[in-house]
Amino acid sequence: MKVEQISVGGNKVGMVGLKEVFQELVNKSPNMTEAELKEELFNKISQRNYIPPKAQEAYSQAFLREFKKFAGLEVEEEAYHSLEIKVLGTGCPQCDGLERSLIQISSELGIRANIEHVRSPEEIAKYKAFALPALVINGQIKSMGLVPPPATLREWLKKAALEKQG
The pTM is what? Predict the structure, then answer.
């Protein structure tokens, strides 16, 4: 089964079996109310995926939104302000450690961030990063060739989040 990434509350989340559930429900959906469809989507998708209890409503909304896109229906996109963070690196321990640190720090600070680990040499080359790991926050290279200390990462994330809000 394929993992599909969707946005839930401004964060990218991987879900297993979305398309299969969508395909199964696409023919039934015209006979269902939106509330019934939302409940059915949640029940089926949560059988294969962990959904944090406090985030069930956000996931339900995301599933319904993604289903509507799949079915070719009109849908309102999720509105949010999250940071776009990219760790550039082929998968060495430093790159992986930087990614883990960013996830932990953004979580601790309550900052919404889409953190992506870019491993493809072709994609990395687009950023003109000459040393790895490299860190890109909202399109701006912040570091190359080293893993910044946690205090520095915290400051960069706080500053970027304030700029994103403004």
Answer: 0.55
